[in-house]
Amino acid sequence: MLDQKLGAMDRASGGSDHLVRATCLLLRKPDTSVTFWQAWNRLHAAIGHKFHDLYTAVSQARR
Length: 63
Known about the structure:
Layout (H helix, E strand, L loop, with lengths): L1 H12 L3 H10 L7 H14 L3 H12 L1
């Protein structure tokens, strides 16, 4: 089910599948860790202004 939702987000955003999945993996890390924020910054730089929308969508899909 999650794979279908992530695939739909990828198609809707016109983004790269690996960036959508990397965002999903990011959400598995505690937001108090350095690793989380390093990955957050890398993804934000790669995705740009659409990152926050993608992050929110992936977060909701995981629920």
